[in-house]
Amino acid sequence: MNRILIIGGTGSIGRLVATRMAELGHRPRVLTRDPAHAQLSLPAAVELTAGSLADPTALRTAVQGIDAVVMTHGAPYGSDDYAAVDYGAVPAVLDALDGHRVPVVLMSSIGVTATGGPSRELLDWKRRGERLLRASGLPHTIVRPGWFDAGNGPLQRVDLRQGDRIEYGPVRRDHVAETIVQALLTESATGRTVEVFSVDGPAVTDWPGAFRAAEPDRPGDLDGARDRPGPHLRTEPERVRADLRHLAPTLPDTEI
Ligand SMILES: NC(=O)c1ccc[n+]([C@@H]2O[C@H](COP(=O)([O-])OP(=O)(O)OC[C@H]3O[C@@H](n4cnc5c(N)ncnc54)[C@H](OP(=O)(O)O)[C@@H]3O)[C@@H](O)[C@H]2O)c1
Question: Could you tell me the distance, in angstroms and rounded to a whole number, from the CA of residue 54 to the centre of ligand 1?
């Protein structure tokens, strides 16, 4: 039985992850700014820890005794908080972990490696979070969902892809959550970046095989295994470079 910290565990995906982990006998712990509200939508077996990502003390409390971290957080669409929340959660959690090596499953998004488009700022910050997590050297799985508009309809099969080549593809929220849960439970998910969609076909039963079919991220590489190369770090915001110097000590200074 593992204690799993879920950042974003009150959200539309995170609450499915927390509920499923509790059903499987694990001990999910959810960080939330509003525990009174959170307890209305989460089972009693889910532990709540109060705080914001902007509060290092709350985060240090939240990571006490944990065996894994799931990150499904996100700032409201159209807000000014992508740098602080969508990206900022990653350095904040790594900082709170203070070298404690636990697996981290990060939910990001399809489209992070593309250019242009109306969500560019959000997606660029999400990509920076992905890159920092890979560079940290912690065991990671990065899950990039398609668009959350497949309802719970007839698409039964989770389809894992790589390379971020699909500009649009629907996914069921429960499929995103199940992929994250399986990433926590499946050794072959470690060190991989996958996109997740819902398609026609029989449900996945061989999760180790599904993750094994994905190419692992190359150790030391900031980008996912089949991604287009990302921007050079010298063109990135100083905040991102400072986080890399602090939280990715094996990355050569010459690259930052
Ligand atoms: N919509 C799509 O089609 C689509 C596709 C791919 C990816 N995504 C990504 O999915 C994410 C949204 O997922 P969702 O729908 O599950 O989330 P959501 O329902 O919008 O919930 C957001 C979560 O983030 C947490 N959060 C936000 N700011 C926080 C802060 N300062 N400190 C601590 N926690 C904070 C919230 O916690 P509390 O409020 O409890 O504190 C809540 O649990 C977005 O980032 C989006 O980019 C969406």
Answer: 15
